[in-house]
Amino acid sequence: MNQSPVAIYTTPTCGYCRATKDLFKTHNIAYTEIDVSQDRAKAREMIQKSGQMGVPVTIVGEGREAQIIVGYDRDRLSRVLNITL
Length: 85
Hints:
The two termini are 13 Å apart. It is built from three helices and four strands; from the N terminus they run βαβαββα. By secondary structure, the protein is of the alpha+beta class. It is globular and about 35 Å long. 36% of the residues lie in helices and 20% in strands. A four-stranded mixed sheet has the order 2-1-3-4, with helices on both faces.
């Protein structure tokens, strides 16, 4: 089980965001959700960190060790979070 902090940048209407959060819930992964539709500063932060304007953007870990996952990439999420799909 992953012990690194997990944050996900989302919007309320994003189906891939819901799928990613469902994956986290299924595997008991604690996460912080950041709704970029209502927070311009957080949207800019997401773009700065990921180089992407689309959601979801998931960040696992902190600092130089952080893994940035753009979109709903189940395979990469499972590797980074050390979960079995």
